[in-house]
Amino acid sequence: MATPATTDLIIGLPGYHTSTAGHLPSAETVTAAVRGARLGLARHDRDRQSFGVALYVDFAATPGDWTAYRFGWGGW
Predict the structure, then answer these.
(1) What are the sequence ranges of the domains in the chain?
(2) What pTM was estimated for this model as a whole?
């Protein structure tokens, strides 16, 4: 477990598409981030109650980002 059970853990999914030295939009996608979060949760802390994901930043997310989020996380 990466954090104590008493800690709420929210992982930000990359809902922005600006290419910078620290962010490569073609590699850091909502689909990949959701998959990584689900794999991590399934392996280590499946029954954790205070865990989630959120699009960051939601105002820059595209309809495709929202679809990937809903399909990948909501379809749990």
Answers:
(1) 9-72
(2) 0.77
